[in-house]
Amino acid sequence: MAYSFFLDGVLLPVTPGSLQIKIKNQNKTVSLLNEGEVNFLKLPGLSEVQFDALLPQVSYPFGNGGRQPADYYLSLLERLKTGKKPFQFIVSRATQGGKLLFDTNMKVSLEDYEISEDAEELGTDVKVRVSLKQYRDFGTKTVTLEQPKTPDGTPAAAVTQERAAETAPQPKTYTVQKGDCLWNIAKKHCGDGTKWKELAGLNADKIVNPNLIYPGQVLTLP
């Protein structure tokens, strides 16, 4: 069977001999009182991919025809590691007769890679162990709240506040006339002459002596 491995559209020079894809889930098993164990099914987790790849410094008959040296692919791995962007990982499978089989095509991130050099086993070639993790696109949701408006386009809240200000109760006042006294004013406007003390206290900033009030003074009524 023929394999072709692509990282971000770049064909690996030598097809890895093995590939491990771990399909993860996030189900959770808990123990309930008098019910035993139950399994809560959740959305699947992110799949993990791992493989070893040979990066040759010379052309081999079993290679994919790539003429780039090992450092070209090492630079690619470093760019994918530090670029903070996901990329496509594709494995194309076909029989020796050229019949296409299933493909692996997923968006992934490069989690880490390990470089191995062994002069006795590899000569000048380099071997890397690559770990990938599936990537899912996501985004945040925003909500825009529109303020209700009146038919003329004015914000309803502003109209409500304005009307509330217009209808707010105004304090009652009385202008002292010649011959007035606090007793008579309290009796006439408060319904009880004995409230003259309350009237005097409410106007303490104007009345120094309750027995002395003067025409023209504006008193605040309870």
Q: How would you characterize this protein structure?
A:
- It is a single chain.
- This protein is α+β, with helices and mostly antiparallel strands and 222 residues long.
- Helices cover 18% and strands 29% of the residues.
- It has helices spanning 70-82, 156-166, 182-190, 196-202; strands at residues 2-7, 10-11, 20-22, 28-32, 36-40, 48-55, 87-94, 104-116, 126-134, 173-175, 218-220.
- The strands form three sheets. Strands 2-1-7-8-9-6-3 form a seven-stranded antiparallel sheet, with helices on one face. A two-stranded antiparallel ribbon has the order 4-5.
- α3 (182-190) packs across α4.
- The longest helix is centred in the middle third of the chain and has 13 residues, at 70-82.
- The radius of gyration is 43 Å and the shape is rod-shaped.
- The termini are far apart.
Fraction of helical residues: 10-25%
Strand content: 25-35%
Strand line-up across the major sheet: 2-1-7-8-9-6-3
Low-confidence stretches: none
The main sheet comes to: 7 strands, antiparallel
The count of strands amounts to 11
